[in-house]
Design brief:
The protein is α+β, with helices and mostly antiparallel strands. The chain is 16% helix and 42% strand.
Length: 146
């Protein structure tokens, strides 16, 4: 089965700043647009920014491998080389709203991954990560769950 693109819609407070961020910084392409929303192609996935002046800013976080991971967040799992290139590109800038700077988490364990978290101009948290071995993406590593 081939993986199909996902769709994610999210609230923003400024469409122009959102467009500059997702196109200018992350290299997304623009799809359909309206006065109150923009579709972006983010690494082959459709994300839609909806202008919502009264959006809730309620946020939380969960501890993951010693970091406070923002909830909610969304992002893309990249190939490791693409992740390293993006981390270098963003690390050279002084205008990135870092939550968790580029790092390796779960080092030496099942699910070891390179990860980084930052916010877009409307405060939405994004995570970009990569695995040295993509077979680990869904490997539970002996976790039992409920």
């Amino acid at each position: 089965m081939s993986i199909r693109p996902f769709h994610h819609a999210f609230a923003v407070s400024d469409l122009d700043a959102t467009k500059q961020f997702y196109v200018g910084l992350l290299g997304s392409k623009i799809g359909r647009t309206d006065a109150r929303w923009i579709d972006f192609d983010l690494y082959g996935h459709q994300i839609t920014a909806h202008l919502l002046e009264t959006r809730s800013r309620e946020r939380g976080e969960n501890p993951v491998d010693g970091d406070a991971v923002p909830i909610p967040h969304f992002g893309v799992i990249l190939e490791l080389g693409a992740w390293k290139a993006l981390a270098a590109q963003l690390g050279a800038r002084d205008d990135i709203d870092w939550i968790i700077a580029p790092k390796v988490r779960f080092e030496g364990e099942t699910g070891e991954q390179a990860t980084m978290f930052f916010r877009d101009p409307s405060g939405n948290a994004l995570e970009f990560k990569a695995f040295a071995d993509d077979a680990m993406i869904f490997d539970a590593g002996g976790a039992t769950g409920d």
